[in-house]
Amino acid sequence: IALFDVDGTLTAPRKAVTPEMLQFMRDLRKVVTVGVVGGSDLVKISEQLGETVIQDYDFVFAENGLVAYAEGKLIGTLSLKSFLGEDKLKEFINFTLHYLADLDIPIKRGTFIEFRSGMLNVSPIGRNCSQEERDEFEKYDKVHGIRSEMVSVLRKKFEHLNLSFSIGGQISFDVFPKGWDKTFCLRYLNEFEEIHFFGDKTYQ
User: Fold this and answer.
1) pLDDT < 50 regions, the chain
2) Which residues are involved in binding Mg(2+) (predicted)?
3) Can 58 be counted among the known catalytic residues?
4) Active site residue 104
5) Which residue among 22, 68, 136, 138 is the one 20 to 30 A from 12 at the CA level?
6) What are the extents of the domains in the chain?
């Protein structure tokens, strides 16, 4: 099986796939089983890869495989809420919002924490920023280490929750239980002797 990341691999970050890439994937599927795995939910993956995404690929793993489809059918789901429980989740979200409120960066927009079924996506600038603001924040973050510093604080504070933090893309980082990263989807791929994964980057 050939397994592809979405953002930064099949598409530019948060952009729609090009017709050339779609054709390449169709051609590839004629010779090998093809799957896609993204950190985003199915709605966002569909915006990027097309409304028929779950039919267009043999496997589609949204939220790193916590929402899994094979041959167009849902084969598994798991949720952060049921795993952590409401109290621990609230404790984490409250602390994170306080931290963000006290964080001094050049600009802030909206949607600082996005709650997905299998993870939290935390963005110091806010996910509602424009592409130009994304690019500026990425440059600022490379110099000032805003995300890495925040991850370091959260990792220490919430050590007891056994969480993983993944800095990727331009403006945010993901928070999820240990083992719930892109390798999570592998539990659905036991039938394959060879798995070739294609992705752009994961810093941590």
Assistant:
1) 203-204
2) 5, 7, 200
3) no
4) no
5) 68
6) 2-66+181-198, 81-177
